Amino acid sequence: MKIAVIGTGYVGLVTGTCFAETGNVVTCVDVDQQKINKLNAGEITIYEPGLEKLFLRNQKEGRLKFTQSLADAIVDAQIIFLALPTPPGADGAADLKYILGVANDLGKLLNPNNYVVIVDKSTVPVGTADKVHNAIVASATIHQAGKNIEHCFDVVSNPEFLREGVAVDDFMKPDRVVIGTTAPKAIKVMNDLYTPFVRQGNPLIFMDEKSAELTKYAANAFLAVKISFMNEIAQMCERLGADVDMVRKGIGSDDRIGKRFLFPGIGYGGSCFPKDVQALAKTADDINYDFKILDAVMDVNAMQKLHLIPKIKKYFNNNLKGKHFALWGLAFKPNTDDVREAPAYYMIDALLAEGATIAVFDPEAINNTISVYGNKIVYANNQYEALFNADALLIATEWNEFRTPDFEKISSALKNKLIFDGRNVFDPAQMQELGYHYESIGRKIIS
Ligand code: NAD
């Protein structure tokens, strides 16, 4: 099939590359000229394990192309994916200006003689498929007066569930694909497109557009609930002298609860959970429904992102002025360079506000961080360099390479044998043995 993907960020680039991988001819569009130039030069623009190999292969085979021109990309396209940003607006609702802006452009460009399926892959509020449909028709009425555009396209909601860090696997072998449309022609096109991805038997779940749109928010909000619930259990553990690891294992072995997403830490971040929980809460607000759990989740997460700060302050008698910290981990989670809403940034801001200085290391997210913090913090070339002369080591992201470090190197570089671990990467018993003062989440303080 011939496919256009509009928006070539994390989702668009993975989507475009993976569809090319199954033999489709894909053209990805972006307004960011630098991004398109790089991609055309064979340079990948995001860090995502496994993506580069597929990107290079499909580009070489001529199945994966990049352009700034929406008009060029959609010529003869059978499917047009919208993988555009939907950031929170001032009121917390998803801002649809990118989506509706492109819908307006499509109204000018669609060819009434070519049937095309337009797919919302972005996370969008309930009712957006209708809005996109109406925006295209309204624009076509002005710019292509007299032509019957309305019958040449359907708008489908096909939310994306990939996780950054394992996005290629998630896309190539999805647990399920949710497809929101009741239009028979669109059902056939989407079924043909996705069949190669569900050969192992996972379902293509067809439903109406609104249910598909709500499914994405429900999934992300539920996962955020799970994380925040465990973070509150961890708070209880710290106060009661219980061990959250034991509680986690104890409840996770129940199939109804499951083992995943039960790890406490310094809160969730990223470009999805924070904005999607907020957007769902706003949708509830708009229909006068008081979605109480979501408000609690947002409050818990706001508190959790700064959970280590009072512990650090307490250790240093409430005075961090002149203290110097090593911070391992900047990305909002491991295996990505994505720093959007990263809990590490909330910690950096709080520590700088207290008059501390910070040296940071992350395997992939340093460049993105330099563009945010400039010379306000120090950037280390490796995890050990960050430790030099620091009063304590702080951990904000659970990269695998942090899990079994050389503790001798750590203790010889640090001023004190002192670690505050926001992701529970070390074993408290080992820290005890090594003589560290070690504070983590929901486990007893080792000193
Ligand atoms: P992103 O910011 O990485 O990428 C969006 C891209 O769209 C950018 O490259 C931007 O330059 C481009 N763009 C903006 N306006 C454009 C226009 N008019 N024409 C062409 N390109 C344009 O965002 P993302 O992380 O890929 O997220 C996209 C959507 O997918 C969001 O709704 C997000 O909530 C959703 N989503 C993201 C993830 C994830 O893990 N990142 C997972 C599932 C769903």
Notes on the protein architecture:
This protein has three domains: 2-207, NAD(P)-binding Rossmann-like Domain (Rossmann fold); 217-303, N-(1-d-carboxylethyl)-l-norvaline Dehydrogenase, domain 2, CATH 1.10.1040.10; 306-439, 3-Layer(aba) Sandwich (Rossmann fold), CATH 3.40.50. It contains 17 helices and 14 strands. It has helices at residues 10-21, 33-40, 51-60, 70-74, 97-109, 128-143, 167-172, 184-194, 209-240, 244-252, 273-286, 292-305, 308-315, 343-353, 366-373, 407-413, 428-434, and strands spanning 2-6, 25-29, 64-67, 79-82, 116-120, 153-157, 177-180, 204-207, 324-328, 357-361, 378-379, 392-395, 418-421, 437-439. It has a six-stranded parallel β-sheet, with helices on both faces. It has a six-stranded parallel β-sheet with strand order 11-10-9-12-13-14, with helices on both faces. Helix 1 (10-21) links the parallel strand 1 (2-6) and strand 2. Helix 5 (97-109) runs parallel beside helix 6 (128-143) and helix 9 (209-240) crosses helix 11 (273-286). The radius of gyration is 24 Å and the shape is elongated. The structure holds nicotinamide-adenine-dinucleotide (NAD). Nicotinamide-adenine-dinucleotide (NAD) binds at residues 6-12, 29-32, 35, 83-86, 98, 101-102, 122-123, 160, 162, 164, 271-272.
